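Quiz preparation item.
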């Protein structure tokens, strides 16, 4: 007797629980980071009011930066874990694609789906490439034509001629 695929719900539920647990862990790390930033803001206010010395505030800054870096790394690691688990879940669900059955007079048969192959004519593909190259060349030429050309302007020297008036002797 032919049987359909049946999903292993226990395994799927287990993966979903792992995913939600890590997501909650990310949220708690984000809350921790927010509380560290809030505490630092309070430290800064105390420093401005003069309750804390400069050395104490400087050491507090280093401490806060280390803590923030540690929390950021933990969040990144948890995000990587979520990606891994979500890929596992996706693969798990992709396997659940249904089989195609066909009933006939002789009985039930499993029919496979045939993917249609795209037939691309080589000549058409080559023509497309050539037209693209021509368009690119035409655009470059058009750009060259639109640029203003520098014309060499020859300066003409204008010499004023002095009119020499000869006085006639009377």
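Solution:
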């Amino acid at each position: 007797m032919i049987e359909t695929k049946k999903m292993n719900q226990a395994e799927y539920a287990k993966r979903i629980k792992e995913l939600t647990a890590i997501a909650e862990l990310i949220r708690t790390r984000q809350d921790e980071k927010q509380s560290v930033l809030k505490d630092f803001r309070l430290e800064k206010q105390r420093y401005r009011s003069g309750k804390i010395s400069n050395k104490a505030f400087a050491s507090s800054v280093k401490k806060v930066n280390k803590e923030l870096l540690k929390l950021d790394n933990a969040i990144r690691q948890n995000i990587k874990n979520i990606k891994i688990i979500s890929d596992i879940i996706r693969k798990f669900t992709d396997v659940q694609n249904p089989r195609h059955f066909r009933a006939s007079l002789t009985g039930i048969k499993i029919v496979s789906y045939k993917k249609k192959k795209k037939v691309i004519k080589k000549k058409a593909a080559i023509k497309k490439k050539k037209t693209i190259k021509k368009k690119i060349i035409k655009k470059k030429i058009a750009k060259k034509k639109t640029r203003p050309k520098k014309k060499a302007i020859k300066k003409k020297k204008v010499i004023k001629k002095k009119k020499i008036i000869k006085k006639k002797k009377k």
